[in-house]
Amino acid sequence: MAAQSTLRQTPNQRFSQLFDTFYARLAARLDAYQRRAPLSKRTTRLLATLALSLTIIAGSYGGYKVYRRRKADREIGHRLVRKNSGLRGKDGSRTIFVPYKDSTSKVTIYPVKKTTFDAHRRLFLSSSDRHGDRYDPALGPPPLDIKPGLNVAFLHQFLSLMSIVVPRWRSKETGLLCMHAVFLLGRTYLSLIVARLDGEIVRDLVAGKGKAFLLGIAKWLAIGSVSSYTNSMIKYLQAKISIAFRTRLTRYIHDLYLGDKLAYYKLHNLDGGVGQGADQFITQDLTLFCDSSAALYSSIGKPLVDLFTFNYQLYHSLGPLALTSLLTSYFATATLLRKLSPPFGKLKAMEGRKEGEFRALHARLIANAEEVAFYNGGGTEHILLDKSFKELRTWVQNIYKIRIGYNILEDFVLKYSWSACGYIVTSLPVFMPALQDLTPKPKSIIATPDADHSQARMRQFITNKRLMLNLADAGSRMMYSIKDLSELAGHTSRVYTLISTLHRVHANAYTPPRWQHPELYSLSDVQGTLHRGFDGVRLEDVPVVAPSLYPMGGEELIAELSFAVQPGDHLLITGPNGSGKSSLARILAGLWPTYRGLTSRPRQQGQDGIMFLPQRPYLSPGTLRDQIIYPHTEVDMRDSGRTEAELQTVLEEVRLGYLRDREGGWDTRKEWKDVLSGGEKQRVGISRILWHEPRFAVIDEGTSAVSSDVEGLLYERAKAKGITLITISTRASLRRYHNFTLTLGLGEEANEYEFLRIGTASEKASVEKELAELREKMGKVEGWKSRKAEIDRELGLMSQMGAVGEEEEGEVESPSVEQGSTEEVSADSAT
Ligand SMILES: Nc1ncnc2c1ncn2[C@@H]1O[C@H](COP(=O)(O)OP(=O)(O)OP(=O)(O)O)[C@@H](O)[C@H]1O
């Protein structure tokens, strides 16, 4: 058995057992040695010097090693920052270097585990058939449309967010919160000492005890310095907690938002649960939530501790009756304030939304500045922005107006009525001696002789007064924090909504409401399958549907589409504008759902898989190298062992060989979307395909701005690399590079399609049919021309008749016309 249990031990346990045994043996040996031959003073000194020297040497060596490591880190950091790159750990972590002062700071980011997201779903995903204000916590998470306020839903939302920011007891955040608590308790303790010292100083002053008075002042200053340190530490730790919370939440949200479930696309285009502005949620709302939840800990925690401590102290000096009356008055006023408090949570949440809308308009203008400038559309944008700002301003002003009345009441109750109550309670034993028996006499008063009696009473009064002021202060801070709490409810609701919506997108949790049919082609009516892992591209009876935001149903463009592309079958997808060509690409890429039927495509995206080149060229922020290897990063490039010489070859293949020298090297960073011309941007797009060498490439109008000779070269180059092309274009000239055509938008209602092999009899027949239709139309041209001439003639006659009629009318109104024309002339001459 024993042998078995040793076998089951972990290496750690075995090591510690071994260590214990050797340590015990060494200690016994030393003990015996010392007893046998006690060490002389000289030997002891020698041994101590040796130990010290060894410690110094080991310490210096350790320090040197740390210095070397830091230096190496700095050098790597500089190099990687220049290349816009990082390091990847074996455990999936990423190490990035951020410029900091003149050096760099190393940050290691560990991805959130998938199981964490699964576990959190039960906290964030509510069933969709519960709406409105009523919320039963037994039924799970609250619905997203519940009004923010101080209720059970808020408690659930707040605790759910807390489980993200403080994931375990041993996390860094727990340490910070504990330290913060220690300093808060320390501050309360210091307040108690200050209250007592205050009484003593006044007592000594009145009694004329100079020495004791000076000693009191010295103590006061000493405590003051400790208090100042405590106060600044509380503020510092609060800021640290806020930043720690923000880091956790931001990383968590980024992992959900930017993962392979394409939440960054689906959130705005399909779900719509957070409107248009996830950016506002992630930046401002998150910061406000973290700031106010970190402040809440001190704004509620500290007054709470104060309330208990000061109440306890007052109980000892004033007795139960006085304390009960004090507390009753506090409780009554607190209830009154709570009842009269406006819904700050809801108001704050709405303010956040309006801020987001205003910010989104500005962001949109920046993104489309060139287009707006070409149209000279500043005026219209101005009106839109002014309108949005006015809405925001009106809302904020309303909040301030609502606050005035509440602030007056709050100020009066908390600052003045509570202190008055305190004075009355302390004076009761003085003015109503009958009550004196109910209040215990402090020991200091009982023990002192008659001469010192009044001094002791004064000291007691001053101490009590300070305690009471502190108590009122703690109570008022408690009440103020109820308002903070309501505002926190608003921020919490915003952040919770974002994370819930992200979880909904992530888990594709669009269950139809119970007892109801989902709307046709809504997100809860997805019955098709997207199969990843097929060596080709295939659609079987898939409807092409332009989706609407959840829970509405989408619009059907093509009822059922079926075709298949095998490797080497280059396909050209054509059709009129708006017929659904790009929509098809979106379905293939998995951006839009396969509502019915089966969509099959390769598993991987990129190398040996499928790659999509969107209609609008996208250039990422980063170096020139990053533009070509996108969506890979420099780390991926290094990992795959590819070189910059290959990069140059690819650029030459797309006729951009000059780019590296023109822009100043691969590490140059610029706003590439402004630097490159339209054709250059599209060629950079093609260079990405040539770099990644996927098996299938879907190119949506990817060469529309490229001259046709270069276009041909690009196509031939891609085909030579073994890439099967699926081109979406209206350019007939591209047919020669493809084997198949898929024409959409045919038929009376533009919802039919035709899939043909180029060069076959049926394809020729189809082209000839098109030609015949064109010829027929051309034959009618002469007839249309003569009809047009006839209509022109008739219109001419009608306008002549109209002019005669106007002249007649003009004669009657001639004075005003004359006046108008003189004004125009004078205005013209003035300009
Ligand atoms: N995100 C979207 N949400 C809803 N409807 C959309 C969305 N994008 C496009 N549509 C609609 O789907 C229809 C097809 O659009 P699609 O972009 O597929 O056309 P297309 O054939 O590629 O046209 P073009 O030749 O102009 O690029 C259009 O009527 C368009 O209004």
TrEMBL record:
GO terms for cellular component: peroxisomal membrane. Keywords: ATP-binding, Membrane, Nucleotide-binding, Transmembrane, Transmembrane helix, Transport. Pfam families: ABC_membrane_2, ABC_tran. PROSITE patterns: ABC_TM1F, ABC_TRANSPORTER_1, ABC_TRANSPORTER_2. Residues 800-831 are annotated as: Disordered. Residues 822-831 have a biased composition (Polar residues). InterPro entries: AAA+_ATPase (IPR003593), ABC1_TM_dom (IPR011527), ABC1_TM_sf (IPR036640), ABC_transporter-like_ATP-bd (IPR003439), ABC_transporter-like_CS (IPR017871), ABC_transporter_sub-D (IPR050835), P-loop_NTPase (IPR027417). GO terms for molecular function: ABC-type transporter activity; ATP binding; ATP hydrolysis activity; long-chain fatty acid transmembrane transporter activity. The chain crosses the membrane at residues 46-64. GO terms for biological process: fatty acid beta-oxidation; long-chain fatty acid import into peroxisome; peroxisome organization; very long-chain fatty acid catabolic process. SMART domains: AAA. PANTHER family: ATP-BINDING CASSETTE SUB-FAMILY D MEMBER 1, ATP-BINDING CASSETTE, SUB-FAMILY D MEMBER. This is ABC transporter domain-containing protein. It comes from Cryoendolithus antarcticus.
